[in-house]
Amino acid sequence: MTTTDELVQRLSDPAGFKKIIGFLGGKRAKASHELFTTADEKGVARSYTLDQREHEGTGYYIKAIGTRGDLTAEQLAELTRAAKLLPLGTVRYEGMMAATMPEPLGSSDDAHDIHDLSRLADGILVYPVTVLNKKREVTFAAWTHKGDEWSVYPIEDNKL
Amino acid sequence: MGRVSGGAIAFALIATIVLAALSVAGYSGVIRGFGPELAIFPAILAAVMLAGLIVSIVLNLRGSKGRDAWFSDAVAQGFAFRKQGSAPGLPGLLFRTGEKTEVFDVVDALDSPTPFLAGTITGTYGSDTSLPRRIAASFIGLPLPQAVPNIVLLGSGIGMLTLAGVAMAGRQRLSLEGDFDRSFTLYCPAGYERDALYIFAPDLMQRLIETTAGCDVELVDDWMFVYSSPGRYRDEGAIGRIMATTALVQQKTHRQTRSYADDRAVPLASPRIVSPEEHAAGAGAVGAGGRRIRTRASAAQRLVTVLSSVVVAGALAYYFFTEILPTLGR
């Protein structure tokens, strides 16, 4: 079973990001690797699924990670409630358009409602994930913190 | 009744004019073969459509007035307001069972001391059955301090859940004491009867009778939903009434649900910290058997299914016996 430490090690190598982003995302992989290796804080965390939607066969998740360890039941209850209040249209749009590493969390002008649920002061990042194959899991996410900016990249299990 | 769209009104208006013109033409003998004896039919249709048009316009105007009051009350209270949008992913039956669900005139007071979310939801329900229908319903969502088993209270008469084709298996029905059974029929997942009795203490039952009689009520996850016919809250002072009701119900539901614990739930390793795996397994909340009530097709849906099956079987039998079977004997 893959551990978060193993994944951090893998992502410290440029090939690690190439593998999770795919061969078409060479530039993004390079920039993400550069950010990951120069960030003030970084890591890989197991994600919580706050909410899950489905629309015409496509799966949409609202996920959260705790960069300082596991979350409390209260935090999860509050985040889950907030996630469930989001309209499907927002979840679908932001599932496609929200910023991912190397872009900072919330930096997409018209697709940041889900990122806005993050509690950055507590190191909690909330982000959308879209999966065309509903059976595909997205267990982990890589994250960085550099200056005032946070970044996240969801890692599909089939890319592990 | 839901709002009639401008497009539908324009279409009905044009159709009325065309029918009226046809009728006038018939009476004046302009069209050969279409005399006064036939002109009565478009005249009747035009009259019916005109009556429908007038009713729709009056309802729309009244609804618009109510919406304005609803909107200005919400703004005056400092609540967020959303006119229209796709429905949120809330766990209530009308949110989770519908297709193409949309919400209208939503007041979000979740950050207030008496938190609630209220508005109108429309959606297509029972689309996987023989009797799909599009309905609109008013809803109020009250957050609870913690997750509880899925309990549904169907109000007396035909409520919004019944109209949406939601029906519960009879063995999930639980009879409660006093006058409660006259106002509501309570359904809870099998094995959760004692939990329902714990939550529905006599004073909470009394409060629900006083405040939500005639509505359908659902407890699910950490929410309580009240569903009623659309437009129920579209008048001046509706927001104030919802706030008062919320405060009354909140006091009782919070007391009864705060200390609720399901000993069938997966226990947490630590009382506060939850791992992603524990969260995925729904640990520390309600056992898997209690999270969702079992629904089934309504009597009307089953009747339509049976009738359509009989019609299809009859048609097939007719075809085979009259067309094919005689040829076998030749």
Please, could you describe this protein's structure?
- The complex is a heterodimer of chains A (160) and B (330).
- Chain A is α+β, with helices and mostly antiparallel strands and 160 residues long.
- Helix content of chain A is 32%, strand content 29%.
- Chain A has five helices and seven strands.
- Chain A has helices at 4-11, 14-21, 26-38, 73-84, 88-97; strands spanning 41-46, 48-55, 58-66, 71-72, 124-131, 140-146, 149-155.
- In chain A, the strands form two sheets. A three-stranded antiparallel sheet of chain A has the order 1-6-7. Chain A has a three-stranded antiparallel sheet with strand order 2-3-5, with helices on one face.
- The mean pLDDT of chain A is 93.
- Chain B has 330 residues and is α+β, with helices and mostly antiparallel strands.
- Chain B is globular and about 85 Å long.
- In chain B, 33% of the residues are buried.
- The interface between A and B is medium-sized, with 25 and 25 residues.
- Strand 4 (71-72) of chain A pairs antiparallel with strand 9 of chain B.
